[in-house]
Amino acid sequence: MPVPAPNLYPDFNVIRLSHVCLNVTDLEVSRKFYTETLGMQITDEDATHIYLRALEERGHHCVILQKSDQPGTVEVLGFKTFDEPDLDRAEAYFAAKGRPTQWVERPFQGRTLLTCDPMGIPLEFYHHMDRLPPIHQQYALYRGVKPLRIDHFNCFSPDVDASVAFYSDFGFRVTEYTEDAQSGRLWAAWMHRKGGVHDMAFTSGIGPRLHHVAFWVPTPLNIIDLLDLMATTGYVANIERGPGRHGISNAFFLYILDPDGHRIEIYCSDYQTVDPDLEPIKWDLTDPQRQTLWGAAAPESWFKNGSPFVGVETRAPQITASPIIAP
Amino acid sequence: MPVPAPNLYPDFNVIRLSHVCLNVTDLEVSRKFYTETLGMQITDEDATHIYLRALEERGHHCVILQKSDQPGTVEVLGFKTFDEPDLDRAEAYFAAKGRPTQWVERPFQGRTLLTCDPMGIPLEFYHHMDRLPPIHQQYALYRGVKPLRIDHFNCFSPDVDASVAFYSDFGFRVTEYTEDAQSGRLWAAWMHRKGGVHDMAFTSGIGPRLHHVAFWVPTPLNIIDLLDLMATTGYVANIERGPGRHGISNAFFLYILDPDGHRIEIYCSDYQTVDPDLEPIKWDLTDPQRQTLWGAAAPESWFKNGSPFVGVETRAPQITASPIIAP
Amino acid sequence: MPVPAPNLYPDFNVIRLSHVCLNVTDLEVSRKFYTETLGMQITDEDATHIYLRALEERGHHCVILQKSDQPGTVEVLGFKTFDEPDLDRAEAYFAAKGRPTQWVERPFQGRTLLTCDPMGIPLEFYHHMDRLPPIHQQYALYRGVKPLRIDHFNCFSPDVDASVAFYSDFGFRVTEYTEDAQSGRLWAAWMHRKGGVHDMAFTSGIGPRLHHVAFWVPTPLNIIDLLDLMATTGYVANIERGPGRHGISNAFFLYILDPDGHRIEIYCSDYQTVDPDLEPIKWDLTDPQRQTLWGAAAPESWFKNGSPFVGVETRAPQITASPIIAP
Amino acid sequence: MPVPAPNLYPDFNVIRLSHVCLNVTDLEVSRKFYTETLGMQITDEDATHIYLRALEERGHHCVILQKSDQPGTVEVLGFKTFDEPDLDRAEAYFAAKGRPTQWVERPFQGRTLLTCDPMGIPLEFYHHMDRLPPIHQQYALYRGVKPLRIDHFNCFSPDVDASVAFYSDFGFRVTEYTEDAQSGRLWAAWMHRKGGVHDMAFTSGIGPRLHHVAFWVPTPLNIIDLLDLMATTGYVANIERGPGRHGISNAFFLYILDPDGHRIEIYCSDYQTVDPDLEPIKWDLTDPQRQTLWGAAAPESWFKNGSPFVGVETRAPQITASPIIAP
Question: What Gene Ontology terms describe what this protein does at the molecular function level (chains A, B, C, D) (predicted)?
Answer without folding.
Answer: 3,4-dihydroxyphenylacetate 2,3-dioxygenase activity; ferrous iron binding; lactoylglutathione lyase activity
